[in-house]
Design a protein that fits this description.
The chain starts with a strand and ends with a helix. Among the domains are: about 85-160, 2-Layer Sandwich (Dna Ligase, domain 1), CATH 3.30.1490.110; about 195-350, Nucleotidyltransferase, domain 5. A six-stranded mixed beta sheet has the order 11-6-1-2-3-19, sandwiched between helices. The chain is globular. The protein is α/β, with parallel strands linked by helices and about 400 residues long. The chain is built from twelve helices and 19 strands. The model is unreliable at about 385-395 and about 400-405 (pLDDT under 50). Helices cover about 35% and strands about 30% of the residues.
Length: about 400
């Protein structure tokens, strides 16, 4: 049975992560190794210091090569940042009266119409995702080829971002003498491994809480309906904790995960947390409920921001499978309960599914995006051999490489 090896690379705000996985023809995905490096030179999901970020990418790829015993020549890259935008668009064509039967050429034409949109001059397409077809107004058409009709329409979800900001991440990878096979936004990658097809059909919202950003994506009837990026994540809570209690930033993350909770009122009255002394830090005691309040307020803000963007486009009763939380921020205690109180629908904590290999990799929500990239690559190779928007992005990347040489 033929197998392929793909590498997913996420250049995150708090970590750089590279996952090497074996993809078999029967759809099975097995993680061979995970490489990590602390992230420097990245802020809110975007490269702000090229030299530092490039070095971190090199360290993560080298770590992944060593752990997987695989030489990495190319990767699938995740991109994020508040510059990424999305919208839905519809295309329509008339079928000639003397034909009536819809052909593959008609489908290609209507898809082209739906993607024929103007973007800001500094932006480029990242994804153009089919949501569904309509034949003479009939909804739910999966494949219109061969059907009879006089009007064919299709809806697309289009995701785009600023070219220069995406190029900065691309250049970090190229600096390591590694090629880029494809690009995907974080939320789409994560959804590949935290959702199954039934959940996509039932309607689901995936929220990936990273260090500097929170990515979200909504599926309805099996297709992407809504997506976005918020420039706020787990590191903002660490900063809040550091500022509130005047403790080193390095201590804030450990305090949040080890002692904190997003739920209020569950700690004993006056209960204290002892923070041990360290070099340059005398140690102290803080009130546990005060810590929880800082965490609660920021996470509540994040969820309300996501809710406003999602529920403004998707009625909550259509999200039948509920909300799926993933990413490093989802490791915080009480986050599921807080999310349920905000969204008022069931919420689950989740990580990569239908994956084999070291459980420490696929059971850790911090790696959902990188593993999801490999799953995305697997599906892309199996189901989309023809040219797509992503191919055009790849050609754009290749052309830019040549110009910069």
């Amino acid at each position: 049975m033929r197998t392929e090896i793909h590498v997913g690379l996420e250049i995150g705000t708090s970590k750089i992560c590279a996952v090497v996985a074996e993809c078999r023809a029967d759809g099975v995905l097995r993680v061979l190794g995970v490489g990590e490096a602390p992230s420097r030179g990245v802020r809110k999901g975007e490269v702000v210091d090229f030299d530092n970020a490039s070095q971190c990418v090199h360290e993560a790829l080298s770590d992944a090569e060593e752990k997987s015993e695989t030489e990495i020549e190319s990767v699938w890259l995740a991109v994020s940042g508040s510059h990424i935008r999305s919208f839905n668009n519809r295309g329509a064509i008339a079928i000639p009266d003397d034909v009536h039967e819809i052909s593959e050429q008609d489908v290609e034409e209507v898809e082209y119409k739906a993607q024929e949109v103007s973007l800001p001059k500094e932006n480029v397409f990242l994804h153009s995702l089919v949501q569904g077809y309509y034949v003479d107004g009939q909804k739910g058409v999966m494949n219109p080829v061969g059907m009879l009709g006089s009007k064919l329409e299709t809806d697309f979800h289009i995701i785009h971002g600023m070219q220069n900001r995406i190029q900065n991440a691309v250049r970090c990878v190229r600096e390591c003498q590694v090629k880029i096979e494809g690009i995907a936004v974080n939320s789409l990658a994560s959804a590949q491994v935290v959702l199954d097809q039934k959940q996509k059909e039932a309607g689901a919202l995936v929220i990936d809480i990273g260090g500097g950003v929170t990515d979200f994506i909504t599926y309805l009837d099996g297709a992407v309906h809504n997506s976005g990026v918020l420039a706020v994540g787990g590191d903002h809570i660490n900063s809040d904790i550091s500022s509130r209690f005047r403790i080193p930033a390095s201590r804030a993350e450990k305090l949040k995960i080890g002692e904190g909770s997003a739920i209020l009122g569950h700690s004993g009255e006056g209960e204290k947390i002892v923070i041990k002394n360290d070099t340059g830090f005398a140690g102290m005691q803080i009130d546990r409920e005060d810590l929880n309040y800082v965490i609660h307020v920021r996470f509540e803000e994040i969820f309300h921001l996501v809710k406003k963007q999602v529920y403004g486009a998707v009625p909550e009763h259509l999200i039948g499978a509920g909300v799926m939380l993933t990413g490093g921020g989802s490791l915080t205690r009480g986050i599921r309960e807080l999310a349920e109180s905000v969204f008022e629908i069931p919420v689950r904590l989740t990580s990569a599914k239908a994956v084999s290999g070291p459980t420490s990799a696929f059971e850790n929500p911090r790696f959902s995006t990188a593993i999801g990239l490999v799953k995305y690559a697997q599906a892309f190779r199996a189901e989309m051999p023809e040219e797509t928007v992503l191919d055009r992005v790849a050609r754009w990347v290749s052309g830019w490489f040549q110009k910069s040489d």
